[in-house]
Amino acid sequence: xxxxxxxxxxxxxxxxxxxxxxxxxxxxxxxxxxxxxxxxxxxxxxxxxxxxxxxxxxxxxxxxxxxxxxxxxxxxxxxxxxxxxxxxxxxxxxxxxxxxxxxxxxxxxxxxxxxxxxxxxxxxxxxxxxxxxxxxxxxxxxxxxxxxxxxxxxxxxxxxxxxxxxxxxxxxxxxxxxxxxxxxxxxxxxxxxxxxxxxxxxxxxxxxxxxxxxxxxxxxxxxxxxxxxxxxxxxxxxxxxxxxxxxxxxxxxxxxxxxxxxxxxxxxxxxxxxxxxxxxxxxxxxxxxxxxxxxxxxxxxxxxxxxxxxxxxxxxxxxxxxxxxxxxxxxxxxxxxxxx
Amino acid sequence: xxxxxxxxxxxxxxxxxxxxxxxxxxxxxxxxxxxxxxxxxxxxxxxxxxxxxxxxxxxxxxxxxxxxxxxxxxxxxxxxxxxxxxxxxxxxxxxxxxxxxxxxxxxxxxxxxxxxxxxxxxxxxxxxxxxxxxxxxxxxxxxxxxxxxxxxxxxxxxxxxxxxxxxxxxxxxxxxxxxxxxxxxxxxxxxxxxxxxxxxxxxxxxxxxxxxxxxxxxxxxxxxxxxxxxxxxxxxxxxxxxxxxxxxxxxxxxxxxxxxxxxxxxxxxxxxxxxxxxxxxxxxxxxxxxxxxxxxxxxxxxxxxxxxxxxxxxxxxxxxxxxxxxxxxxxxxxxxxxxxxxxxxxxxxxxxxxxxxxxxxxxxxxxxxxxxxxxxxxxxxxxxxxxxxxxxxxxxxxxxxxxxxxxxxxxxxxxxxxxxxxxxxxxxxxxxxxxxxxxxxxxxxxxxxxxxxxxxxxxxxxxxxxxxxxxxxxxxxxxxxxxxxxxxxxxxxxxxxxxxxxxxxxxxxxxxxxxxxxxxxxxxxxxxxxxxxxxxxxxxxxx
Lengths: 340, 543
Known about the structure:
The complex is a heterodimer. In chain A, a hairpin with a 2-residue loop joins β1 and β2. Chain A is of the alpha/beta class. Chain A contains nine helices and 19 strands. Chain A has two domains: 185 residues, Metallo-beta-lactamase, Chain A; 133 residues, 3-Layer(aba) Sandwich (Rossmann fold). By secondary structure, chain B is of the alpha+beta class. Chain B has three domains: 138 residues, DNA ligase i, domain 1, CATH 1.10.3260.10; 200 residues, DNA ligase/mRNA capping enzyme (D-amino Acid Aminotransferase, Chain A, domain 1, 2-Layer Sandwich), CATH 3.30.470; 134 residues, CATH 2.40.50.140. At the A-B interface, α7 and α9 of A face α1, α5 and α6 of B.
């Protein structure tokens, strides 16, 4: 068996496989890319060829336009593709629709790069599957023992409870456009809320795409008002859920809503000061990333010979691995956002 | 406990004053006695359980998790109680939540040695939010963005009474305030506590120049200051106190109502009057003048005072105002009238322990401006301007009184070390140690003289952080050492309020209240201040 660094190693453009001559989630345009999921910091436009799940390919086309890459290689979960003699396959990651772990195998050495992942049940995507491997390359967004995401349904109940407590206030729910928005909507529907949910324009195409993939989101309407309509029309948003990217709520766009209450759905909301500093009044702790317990449980489940840790709080996960007797190293890849 | 932790959570995240008052009123309305009273005491800082030190909480955690993982977590979160509440291992099946009054009662009845065990027992049984509330409660200092004043305003709204009525009664009442809540809920008479010897809420002044106009002395309207409208007096550099001597009961309070009588028996023994005085607590030098603040600091926060301390650093009060004389409440009189009463009481026969702060003649703003920066004694921080017609009003009313402090001292120093901040700043190097040049036989050696962690904007912080990352030459745990040579180094202009001799510091000096005034990207490091140059401020401060 060869040294793992010869099969995959970090470069400024991203994790690179010299044998297969491809990158995983490169942060710059490259000739050949394997993309784990459609979030902008992992999936960029302009690569020569993109290998990803059909859903991720569709998401990239929806975000960047049909010409986002010269060559598309839609690959189903479990299907094995050979790239210059390196066997590449995708396993579900449970992060967002289409998200996958990249499994790279060559001459008996198997390495798995998780991309972003979570372990808990999500009605909008296929659940994570641990893949036994020699080297496990895990994300570490929430890799601190302080991050323990509470039960999703309890968190959604907090939002619905607030709607009844403040029936005159528009609830502006900050969510990322891909994944979080659709998951939150699905959870709200599961909790029995059937009213129309108003969405910012930035969410529309991805919500439509999820619907096309058979994920029903209920009644959605644009959170817009006709130009010049009477002030009273604003009242239709009172006591309703309005969803948009967090940035939109700091914008002029948000002025149209009556006495708004700002809600943000994110794993970061676990930390009070973080919620307070972002001006959030109702923090909903809900993440598409694994929390501390899920990260450590996943390493145990996969039980690799070596753990490599990337983007996030690498030090803490490496420290934990060391205490557990795993050989671990931080990759210090750059270019990935602290998203959630 | 759940209701209390939810209240604290909501108060932290609710930005508006009125919304906070509404939250508090709701809580008072739906929570029974004595829990609401204990909550009120906790929020106003009157609940002093004093059983648990933060170090004990840390010890509990280190029995349960790796030190290094805890340190990484604490660095990220920035708040001990919050970190511990989040990392505490969940015990499955634990579902008993003690009530707030049960917690207060039990903690008060528990010997110190048993306290950690008790706290751990509760932490095992509570959820994350309640663990946080419990830890805040037992370690003191909630820091939830609610002042005691705001809590009293909420009480006033809850009971439909004036906030002044609550303020006035407050220091005669004790937690859990059942008599107060009975009155406010309409189930009882207004409490009439014995106010003899009680603290009276203090009147405070606004700065004459808004902070943002720091560099712009013209921002004040000089026409406002006339001898007819204003009296002026020196602002002494001690601590503001209230001396209460009524019906044989004597107390010395800080301006926030903390009783410090036991720390200053020399002053209390000399309170041979029947009055409530407002003044500055100072230490006298052998020559009769005021000693530097440092000497007063040696006497603060001591449980017992040695005879040596009493004789070497005798304390006294320089009186500014009189609030009560005998049975008479003077606070509704004008400053002019109160001043006459104060001078009648003390002015004719000042003692070693009590004298009257002299008035400064008011002519115009320009001459006062000159005076505040060149006071006759170094232990003067500037001037106080008080309207002759001002009544003595609790709080910090806008308009009647102003403080006009001396401009800060400024020096150019070189950044030597940087440390990561906490919380929002945890990703940035935001705490800086800076130094000046000591001249030695081998040439110039950079010597640390202070630490500062504010005085810069968010954008400047990003620039500073970048500088630290690009110029690190060594690391000591969380501390980065940056380039600081005659040729290379970042100069910052540091503002400070005074300089004390300090044998504990390598440089021999300690700055008071240092902060960045501006960053001198342009200035060569070799042109920063020398240690001897800095020490000239010392002679200024101590002669």
